[in-house]
Amino acid sequence: MDWHFTTETAVKVNDIVYAFNEELEAGSFYDRFIGADGSDGEDDSAAFRNALAAARDRAAGSGRVVTVAVPVGTYQLASSIPIYSNTRLSVAADATIVNTEASGTGIMVFGQHVCGYGTDCPHGGYGQIENVTIEGGTWDANDADGQSHHLIFQFRHGRNIAISNAVCKNAANHFINLSGVSNAVVENVVCEDAAAYVGDEAAFWGVSPLGDPARYALLEAIHTDYLDAAAEGRAFPLDGTPSRNVRISGCTFRNVFAGAGTHHYSATGEHGGDFVVSGNAFELKDSGGNCINLYGFTNVTVTGNTVCGRHRGGRFLHSMGSTSSVAGNRLLGLTTIGCFIAEGSEACIADNELAGGTNGICLVGSTASEIRGNVLSGISGDTGIKIYQSTVGEAKRKTAVNVVANTSVSSSKAAGMADIRFGEHCTGCTAKNNILGRRGLTAHASARYTESGSVVQVALSKCKVTLSARTLYYNGKAVKPAITVTYGAKTLKAGTDYAVSWQNNNAFGTATAVISGKGRYAGTVRRDFKIVLRAPVPKTARKVAGGVQFVWSGSKGAAKYRIFRKVGSGKFAKLADTAGTSWVDKTVRPGKTYTYTVRCLSANGKAYASAYDTKGKAVNYTK
Fold it and tell me: Which of 25, 321, 489, 596 is geometrically suited to a Cys-Cys bond with 550, CB 3.0 to 4.6 A?
């Protein structure tokens, strides 16, 4: 992306405005107090407005980006703060900005043209604001009680907008709104703890009635949209400006209703394009909201994202009328559909891992989409991959020319399950080289498709799994016996057909090899084996002052030893336990022959960890 931002080296000291009480060096641009104080608990709105206005004026005069620096402290904002073009708002990582506005709705920081007009601003396109960076700090919308609903950052009709390295929390609205913008990035931002608005219905910006779960499911933490009356009714001028070149990367969405994107869709007009969602982590609320909503966007890249096991939200991806590449995402603990591609969308869904959920991938009324190289497991609903026509609109949209290839599908439910399903009026679809579970591929009588090269998945429990040994010596590092897995006459390949993990294999005791199927092979097999210590070797038994000293060589991994002694031709009997490798027997009597041996013990002393030398070391004790 072309940011056109002034480099750090070009920003001189007199291009920094400090929004807090601190005397600056003589000759600096702003050598008087701005007035914000992060320790007094008072409203700092005026001070922030003054600082940002000073930055605006300085930027207009110098043509450079001006920085407003905010140090550690807790700042109160009782009213919305405008930020202007060519401004960097740099907040210390440990600083907190808290919204204290009494009204039910508002925005903490919003982009504004220098003309100062609000909703009546005549500057359309991307001409209202440009070259703005907000970085650092914790931004608290303070809506946790649900009585108010505030945005934290909002930019419309702008370009070259960056928000990074910040924590945004407790909003009962979108956290960040970037609509009708070009070249915008949100990077390494945490959006957490969305609140459910329960206040005045008339003041709410949403479209669903109070108490309707759909109201919250549409509240993307990071929202981006086009600017017309249907999508952003207050974003004047309503000239249909789309959002282009927007990147959301490295962000965390934790305990929010929905993740990123837009839920507005119109069959006409340009919504936006060149949208990247990469390297983010999603843990949504149990609200039915989706991690990513793609409505009407072109050239979308969704890659390297994760959904963790604590996720309780809806779909990972919902796409309508969009073209997208969805690749390399790791989606664990899904509760509903993984990827839902609908209403004329085209997608390449490749090399993703999807675990859980009612369905893995659904194409509805999609044309020219491709599903390849994915691994789907633990699907609990009726279908792993479902392709069928749309039932929305006056005419049903037929699903055509879609390809499912090199994909592995397995389910946790047997009854009624299809691994791949071609539904009604699918035409020209292809399935090839897939690895299917027990339910295979099914199709509606009206579907027209071709299938080739597919194989049925094999349960690893039906394979023969052999360890090179069931008892092995500890050698000072993790013990890993060789593993051979065969299915009939075929020997499976580690890394290709199965993976191995180990449990408790770095000490004496029972260890486990966990063999997990890959590709055509599904399921998990466990094989236990014993790890023992090598028997300690008796070295010497000799007379010393006060008795007999017995010395032996230690064994790797031994926590303690048990010494045995026999008198004459008798039997070995326990003498003592020790953590060392020598012992002085002070109970000997002259004229007798003593033989000593030793054995390793477990750490708790309750089990023998090794064998022992049956001959031992003998000594004839005399005074």
Answer: 596
